[in-house]
């Protein structure tokens, strides 16, 4: 299918012909799309469509058998450890917080590889997300919405070029989802590109500039929220099956 | 009363050594999820290095530094060597390699230095100081307590207050997440092993002058007691290692003093069994577990 053009000639993220198989099972087949600078792209699809596998391929956690991933025009790092230095941050579905560490320590971990005292940067991002009062609390002791914000703060503290959000709205109430949408919009406005996997359709329609729809590991639709909403293939594969709203 | 004070104070010194060795087991458990059954053999190998350096230079302090360096080097070699090829999801392989390492190191030491006990002099007198008529700690035991406390404080500062400590803790508890955050997990595991074996070497070096002398098996009993300490305290808990080390050191000393030395291991075993029945993960085990 034709891939719509992105705002810049060199996209932040370029996925071309990506193929991933686990044993004999094809999980991704010829997946191609881009994310431009400052653009927010949502990756949606039914459970098992391969959304998280796309993230894992971008992060070097799974090795594709076909195609490739380029970040800022260069091949994506083969090792997940090099992601932050390539300008990529990711949140996880399971949050992956260090439960016994304080909120501040959690946010300091991605900065610990570079010299100097980064406490001021960490506290600044905590203040931005309304977490200042919780800085010294153990992350594991916080309610779920606050823990989600800590995960987001940890991803944003390195000022990434590309932010990968894995189901950021899952488990949140309406007010928290609105606040999250505001934060994503601010991040994108600052020039950071965002790729978000999410089931919450209203959130996706609200924040995404473009939507890529996956089904059985293949891209079945790609376009603006308005274009995708009316796509019969999407309705049949995803929206028509009673997706969460 | 005099006897009680003496036994308590000497138990405290032995407990500090036990705590230090147990802490070394906790460090390697936290960083690699391995109970290193070769810890005693590796530690005593480093003590032999100290013995050789002290014999050549005449300086106990150079020997002490040599033991730390040899312990760290040995930890790195073992982790980067045989253990690097062990599958992470198979704890048995790590244990088997450790047991093989015990045989190789102890046989190698016996061939190189002989199996006999070699006397190692303490850097300070071992006669107890008297407070009034009551014998308390010897100058060497005071030295042992100060060194153990200093090392524990240094490790607490390292793990709690430095970027390296933050990365070591992150890599220990959530290696996959840590990788995504830029932490070089394999390097952290290696550093964990280096810290662990260096700490164990120091504990063994502090113990040997108070025992029969240096021998390839000189730290075997220390390992058994320290393993009990680590399990009683909680294998994940440095604070547990410290507390349980002092408890078992004092228990050992009191039972030896008031009953017989032969009953001391039995008392430790009873305590270990009791703790395992009531709190199977140890007295100070944390509620959370390691994640991917």
From TrEMBL, chain A:
Pfam families, per the entry: ABC_tran, BCA_ABC_TP_C
A GO cellular component annotated for this chain's UniProt record is: plasma membrane
Q: Which CDD domains match?
A: ABC_Mj1267_LivG_branched
InterPro entries named in the record: AAA+_ATPase, ABC_AA/LPS_Transport, ABC_transporter-like_ATP-bd, BCA_ABC_TP_C, P-loop_NTPase
Q: Which organism's genome codes for this protein?
A: Phytomonospora endophytica
The source's superkingdom equals Bacteria
What protein name applies here? Branched-chain amino acid transport system ATP-binding protein
Question: Which of UniProt's keywords are assigned here?
Answer: ATP-binding, Nucleotide-binding, Transport
Q: Which GO terms describe its molecular function?
A: ATP binding; ATP hydrolysis activity
Nucleotide-binding among keywords: yes
Instruction: Describe the location of the ABC transporter domain by residue ranges.
Output: 13-241
From TrEMBL, chain B:
Keyword annotations: Amino-acid transport, Cell membrane, Membrane, Transmembrane, Transmembrane helix, Transport
Tell me how this protein sits in the membrane: Multi-pass membrane protein
The record's subcellular location field reads: Cell membrane
One GO molecular-function annotation for this sequence?
A: transmembrane transporter activity
One example of a Gene Ontology biological process annotation: amino acid transport
Q: Which GO terms describe its cellular component?
A: plasma membrane
Q: Does the keyword Hydrolase apply?
A: no
Chief location of this protein within or outside the cell: membrane
Where exactly are the transmembrane stretches of this chain?
6-27, 34-54, 60-79, 91-114, 134-159, 188-207, 227-251, 258-278
Q: What family does this chain come from, according to its entry?
A: Belongs to the binding-protein-dependent transport system permease family. LivHM subfamily.
Identification of the protein by name: Branched-chain amino acid transport system permease protein
Q: Which organism is it from?
A: Phytomonospora endophytica
């Amino acid at each position: 299918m034709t891939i719509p053009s992105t705002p810049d000639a060199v996209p932040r993220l370029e996925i071309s012909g990506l193929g991933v198989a686990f044993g004999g099972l094809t999980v991704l087949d010829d997946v191609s799309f881009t994310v431009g600078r400052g653009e927010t792209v949502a990756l949606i699809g039914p459970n098992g469509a391969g959304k998280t596998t796309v993230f894992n391929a971008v992060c070097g956690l799974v090795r594709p058998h076909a195609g490739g991933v380029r970040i800022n025009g260069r091949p994506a790092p083969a090792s997940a450890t090099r992601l932050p230095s390539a300008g990529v941050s990711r949140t996880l579905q399971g949050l992956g917080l260090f439960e016994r560490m304080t909120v501040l320590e959690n946010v300091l971990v991605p900065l610990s590889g570079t010299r100097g005292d980064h406490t001021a940067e960490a506290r600044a991002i905590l203040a931005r997300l309304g977490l200042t009062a919780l800085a010294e609390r153990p992350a594991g002791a916080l309610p779920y919405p606050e823990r989600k914000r800590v995960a987001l703060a940890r991803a944003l503290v390195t000022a990434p070029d590309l932010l990968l959000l894995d189901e950021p709205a899952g488990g949140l109430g309406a007010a928290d989802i609105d606040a999250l949408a505001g934060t994503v919009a601010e991040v994108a406005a600052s020039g950071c590109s965002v790729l978000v996997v999410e089931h919450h359709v209203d959130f996706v329609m609200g924040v995404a500039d473009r939507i890529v729809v996956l089904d059985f590991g293949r891209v079945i639709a790609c376009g603006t929220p308005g274009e995708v909403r009316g796509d019969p293939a999407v309705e049949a594969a995803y929206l028509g099956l009673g997706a969460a709203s | 009363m005099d006897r009680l004070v003496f036994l308590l104070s000497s138990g405290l010194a032995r407990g500090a050594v036990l705590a230090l060795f147990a802490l070394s087991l906790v460090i390697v458990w936290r960083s690699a999820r391995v109970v290193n059954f070769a810890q005693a053999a590796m530690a005593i190998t480093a003590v032999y290095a100290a013995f050789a350096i002290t014999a050549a230079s005449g300086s106990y302090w150079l020997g002490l530094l040599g033991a730390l360096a040899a312990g760290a080097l040995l930890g790195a070699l073992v982790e980067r060597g045989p253990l690097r090829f062990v599958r992470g999801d198979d704890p048995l392989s790590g244990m088997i390699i450790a047991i093989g390492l015990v045989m190789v190191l102890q046989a190698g030491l016996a061939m190189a230095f002989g199996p006999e006990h070699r006397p190692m002099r303490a850097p300070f007198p071992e006669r107890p100081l008297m407070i009034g008529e009551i014998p308390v700690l010897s100058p060497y035991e005071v030295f042992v307590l100060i060194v153990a406390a200093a090392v524990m404080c240094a490790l607490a500062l390292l793990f709690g207050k430095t970027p390296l400590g933050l990365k070591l803790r992150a890599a220990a508890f959530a290696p996959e997440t840590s990788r995504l955050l830029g932490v070089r997990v394999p390097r952290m595991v290696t550093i964990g092993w280096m810290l662990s074996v260096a700490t164990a070497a120091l504990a063994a070096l502090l113990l040997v002058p108070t025992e029969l002398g240096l021998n390839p098996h000189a730290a075997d009993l220390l390992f058994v007691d320290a393993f009990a300490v680590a399990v009683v305290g909680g294998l994940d808990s440095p604070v547990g290692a410290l507390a349980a080390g002092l408890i078992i050191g004092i228990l050992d000393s009191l039972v030896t003093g008031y009953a017989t030395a032969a009953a001391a291991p039995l008392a430790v075993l009873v305590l270990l069994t009791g703790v395992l029945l009531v709190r199977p993960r140890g007295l100070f085990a944390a509620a959370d577990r390691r994640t991917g």
